[in-house]
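A further point concerns the way the authors explain their paired sequence and structure data. The central task, working out the structure tokens from the amino acid sequence alone, is never made concrete. I therefore recommend that a typical entry be quoted early in the introduction. An entry of this sort, consisting of the sequence and the corresponding backbone structure tokens, reads as follows:
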Amino acid sequence: MRRQKWFVTLAASLAAAVAALGTCAGAKELPYDTYTYDYRENVMLTPAAYVPNGRITGQTAGTTDFKEPQDLCVAPDGLVYVADTGNNRIVVLDEDMSQTVRIIDSFERDGEQDSFNAPYGVCVSENEQLYVADSNNKRVVVLTPEGEFVKIIDNPQSEVLEDDFDFVPLKVTVDYADRVYVIARNAFEGILVFENTGDFTGYFGTIDVKITLWEKFWRRLASKEERSKQQLYIPTEFTGIDIDSDGFVYASNLDSDGLQGIRRLNPRGEDVIQKGENQNLGGDLWGSVYGTYSGPSEFTDVVYRGKGIYSLLDRKRGRIFTYDKEGNLLYVFGGLGSQEGTFNTPVAIETVEDQIIVLDAYHGAVLKFAATEYGSLIDKAVGLRYDGDEKQAIGAWEQVLKLNENNELANSGIGKAYLTAGDNAQAMKYLKLGMNRKYYSIAWQRYRNELLTQSIGPVMTVVVAVIAVFVLLAQVRKRKGRGKRKEGLL
């Protein structure tokens, strides 16, 4: 079902929510609202989940200003790598991003100096190798973290590629087997995959575009000239990429319908992401019809945060959407603007321990966001459920409800925990408060079976007793009949 309602702006929805609920704690001090959507898709303001916690520029880190940086990543050792695209360099920052550890702007290759030309993406693998999407040089450069040359990945060859295919890598990530996944410009067929040898193996995770029967009908009737003016039905473009420890690839994509802006791709390239109760992974459910910020959210990057939690960065309205493994929206925060904690051109998102960091290309800065008690409790509760510790999860969700009694997700989380523990009656109570029809139905079926099981003993006892009485009466009547026949014979 189409869930976006383009006839009302998101701003109007937030204003209505404020009027109905009042301003949440701490909201006056923040340059943005934190919210989620309830079961009926109404905007629900919540306490702040994350708050601004600093801003890093090239100068504050001890080097020159960043110039239109496009990507950043956190290495296994905690160092932060920034693709300073406009300055043709990779800037390596320490764990708290207060100091520049090193700058990599050139490297020695076959006895000669080589350099970058608009490095757009950066990644450090588990095996501690640095991968740089050297866009204008049309290659992926692999170096040691210190900047020593390892290899080049370029000029992919395959029958699946067009004869005039122009390899311009934009984003790159690497799995535990050193397979390289590359998002390239105008590569709408999917993500390009390379073996650790640098050999191209094919496209990965292609998103099929479905044409409705109505569109097929009109395309048959239209003239050649009319068809040429119609929308081209090409696969959706990927924008950001991350990978978890199990080798599942999280890839953000542009979705004109605003229904699914993220994929979780298994090793075969199949999307296995869960969509939650509302069947929507497209960001904002409400948007305006007119203006620069109209239309659905446009996810430009994704970060997998562990315990099934992932966050998506919306470049259209500067918001960060966070979901759990089951596709439930946990919280939304952020915005565009000039105040501290807002963005102009957000391009990349990462996490440093319990902080979320976002790269703003226009301001050439990394913005840090720290979790509040409310945000930490939600993350903790989701993580406990992910680990199977339902008892501890109930305690965390109960603390969430103390801060926000209208949190449907917390009620639903408690209900799921009770369901797993086998307390179906309590599960039904909280799942009803959480408006979770799917799991409430499961709890009701189990509770009904439980009642049947509990009552089957007494019922069977009564049935057996009734049958025994009937058998006994039948025998008595039979004996009386025999007695009368014998008396008649005498």
